[in-house]
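Regression test attached.
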Amino acid sequence: MADHASQSPDSKYEVVIGLETHVHLRTASKLFSPAPVLYGEEPNHSVHPVCLALPGVLPVLNRHAVELAIRACLATHCTVHERSIFARKNYFYPDLPKGYQISQFEEPLATKGWIEIVIDGADSGESVSEKGDVEPTNKRIRLTRIHMEEDAGKSIHDEGIAGSDATLVDLNRCGVPLVEIVSEPDLRSAAEVSAYLRTLRSLLRYTEVSHADMELGQLRCDVNISLRIRGEQEYGTRTELKNLNSFRFIEEAIEAEVKRQTAILDEGGEILQATLRYDPERRETFVMRLKEDSDDYRYFPDPDLIPLVVSAQEIERIRRQIPELAEQKCERFQSEHGLSEYAATQLTQTRALSDFFEATAVAHGQPKSVANWVLRDVMQATKECDLEIDAIALTPEQLANLIRLVDDGKTTAKSASALLPELVRLGGDPVALVRERGLEAVSDTGVIDQAVADVIAENPENVEKYHQGDEKVINFLMGQVMKKTQGKANPASVREALARVLDQ
Amino acid sequence: MSTAFATIDELRTALDSGKSSVVEIVTDCIERAEASQDSIHAFIGLRAAGAIDDAKRADARRASGEVLSPLDGIPVAIKDNMVQAGEPTTCASRILEGFVSPYTATAVERLERAGAIIIGRTNMDEFAMGSSTEHSHFGPTRNPWDLTRTPGGSSGGSAAAVAAGIVPAALGSDTGGSIRQPAAFCGVVGMKPTYGRVSRWGLVAFASSLDQIGAFARTARDCAEVIEVIAGHDHRDSTSIPAPVPHYAESFHGDLNGVTLGIPTEYFEAEGVDSDVLESVRAAIGQFEKAGAKTVEVSLPHTRYAIATYYLIANAEASSNLARFDGVRYGHRSRDANGLTQMYRKTRSEGFGTEVQRRIVLGTYVLSAGYYDAYYRKAQQVRTLVRSDFERAFETCDALVTPTSPEVAFAFGDKTDDPLTMYLSDIYTASANLAGIPGVSIPCGRVGGLPVGLQLLGKPLDETTPLRVADAYQRATDHHLHHAGSSE
Amino acid sequence: MSHINRSQIDRVAELARLSLSDEEADRLSIELDSFLGYVETLNELNTEGIVPTSHPIPLSTPMRDDLPEPPIDPELAIRNAPESAGSAFVVPKVIDSESL
Ligand SMILES: [Mg+2]
Ligand SMILES: [Zn+2]
């Protein structure tokens, strides 16, 4: 991603990006309606009179949604306000049944926060030019505000389904609770946007604020982009890319928009404030409408809802619920468990993985060894079984026992690893499984000695090399012995027996 | 017995003594309603079959010794802006053409649970926007006292239904006087409780921060009984007040010893007030004093700003509340529209009447970019001043006495040419909605054969004092006993 | 002094999704102008520093537990719709010449 001409450090323009990210909160019911939040239902199968905006219905706020929203604010270092106001944003659209969206405008839930992102040196124009290397750097992205609002329904324009002169309206998504996280224009490239969104997604998942599944539309963003001549302080005129819901489209759309704006500016043209759409097929951005004829949303405090008041104690209570986040956990895994930065980073990708690792490490007692097992063998088996780490049957205790069998020479690493796919799928007692499957390590000196004798007899030239001082040969001979014992021999015993015979 | 013009109290006595059955009462009631439709036109829709079925069940309950509440078996009409499951709701608008509600309003549900029989939906100004019930898609309601005059509005159908002796009680809604003013014009009792006292769940919104459901009846006592049933906290309305509802009649002592009534000077000095109306109100104040009340003069200095404030806020909220009527999920949709935007625009202009469109345009304008601070925000600030006027006044008195309306029922067409004169007739009622305080209108005499209304305003959550004063007055006088067509 | 003109009325009618005839729009601009003139009286009051009242009863908004209720029968959800297909509402497509 480092070599896009439009973003390269020697480009005349600096790219300035701010993001508005919409995130579905993980609630069972909607923000102001008791309808269940369900995904993938038939149209209008998870609605209530409130979602339909029937005459006479009224909104009542979901407490859990408020808690989750506050959790998101606190995890992003925002100041949560004890009093905030729900306002109506008025506009007509078929998927907005009340003719207004309940959102927050003046007096939002929280303001002024930040999240820290890590950018690969290669991806960041600035760090390359300043340092000339590819060291990853940390960057703080400031957040302007976080506010709560309800999602709209869906308009289905697909001609195959709706016909050429009609649009279908499904209100299942209507009223799903959202937080909108608005960043300052602190991002400078598509890669930074990606890093920001990945960090944000990890944070939202760790805190269980949201599943943040982009494919389900649980995380979507609007991207505001402008260019300015490098070194200039004033921002250029910005355009807005609406409702992007995959990392690939976001990066592509930014590239395309930067290219479009660069071409206009290079020709001495003027950027018009506009809302754009990205066409992935043509890899181009298109102006949907200019801001001049922008909507006049006529925001005013929703008279059906009184101000939201959350006490300082309540905010503190929610703060205490916030679990350790990836960043802190990664540092702790290095300092407390002695893991490498690489292993710690890998293990803290998701909260499920880090929890699984840590529980196993506690049960087993040797975190470094457990880290190796988890990152290599368990991940491999999980992938083979097409499962996510939080869906596996293998428990931390079972894994700890399995590793211990290897440590004690009761089975070999190879045998243990071979058992993992089954354990991942079904779970089970490793001790019993090793016994049932005949996977105990062979420590029977008779069997090993016989195998060693056979291998030495079959490989006179290698024995000769050993005696001439090529000690590496012993590894080859060991492999041969292991093969003869179908990998069940205790490697330590084999090495000992081989050395004994060779050094005679 | 004849059940026409009967009070709830009288009907209950007839039921308890076995002189009447609920089916007889309800049948009478529906017959009267039907017979008066051509002349008075109080109803948009009658629930004849459903009401008779409900009446049979009420009789069966009574026969088995089970009586749900003091309202069990009592016929009640509801304003056609409150939904009832399986029944149409129109708000007197073409835009709700064909709409049948799948759910029931809390106030209506509480009446049903109390055993009251909902006999039909009463006429109103479209979306409760008006003071005359002339602005109904289904044609106006006429004042039972004089068919050439309006019954007031917007709850004119409910007021007329009680005044014509069709039902002993009816529900209405009051956003700027829409219960109290028609009660005054029709010579019945009408109360708007404290904002938040009765749930708005299922009340089609006009102006959410002002709307309040209340009741009409022939006596203060009956009115209190209906309010008691429909009031109380409801978790489905975020603006519902979590406070217990008193048994109002317990405080009806007959005398007014210990009660101090405030007389707001501004209300008696306003321009355009009929002097005969003021005289009736003054006579009633004399009666209150005779019953033991003290009176003090108080000042509500921001009264003259209330109408402008009220119309700015009400119409702003209405412009947003009425956005949901878009021809997508229910109601009227224009048949000759090309594309979505045209569908919206034609649907809404065909569906909404002139007055509603006027208010939507005004409300949209005052909220639009560049005008919000000058109009909407300014009005909300003046609202604060109006509220503090009342707070200050209530430091020296327990309730306020005012005329309900500057004049008696006006003739059809009198105010339709200039909307502003219509708006100004809410001068005595709109402030109470801005402040959220309760108010009751009672008949206190007649001018030119037409009833005069007196308004009693109470402190927030204190419906008791206005009702108690009204009850004491009715014990001592007989104005409430006169009705259209009765001999003096 | 004029407070609102015809072109503003047209813009507001578009925002409010109303379709007014010339005659209606002209009449409305006169009526609203007269009302807004009346509203001028509020400017006699100095409201600097006065907290706006958006709600007559000062409370904080209540909250409900996150317990879903069963959804409405989809058949009932669309029963009142002027047009539907399957369980979805049907609206005319946005045509290109329209602004949204
Ligand atoms: Mg946004
Ligand atoms: Zn948003």
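Expected vs. actual: identical. The pocket of zinc ion (ligand 2) is lined by residues A 22, 149, 180 (CB under 6 Å).
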